[in-house]
Specification:
Structural class: mainly alpha
Mean pLDDT: 82
Helix content: 55-70%
Low-confidence stretches: 52-57
Distance between the termini: 18 Å
Strand content: under 5%
Number of domains: 1
Order of helices and strands: HHHH
CATH topology: Arc Repressor Mutant, subunit A
Amino acid sequence: MKNYPPEFKADTVALYQSRPGATIKQIAADLGVNPETLRNWIRAAGASRPRGRQADAPVGSAAAWEVENAALRKKIRELEEEREILRKAAKYFAGETRW
């Protein structure tokens, strides 16, 4: 049985919350974690996925551009967070394989 640091668990749950299209199984496979373990972490954290808002602004309007920019900024934050989580996971697993 592997022991994961609390920070890794929290980051993994945050990754799950930030990727509404991804399944627990996909995220667990990406990080090398058992899907049931990840499911338990999500339950323990009481995590749920945020519901997205649909833009009602007409295409080409300034409001539509603002909505798109906000969505793109959010996606950038999510990708940066995912990258950081994967870096931490790689660092953790690299340290675990050393003798």
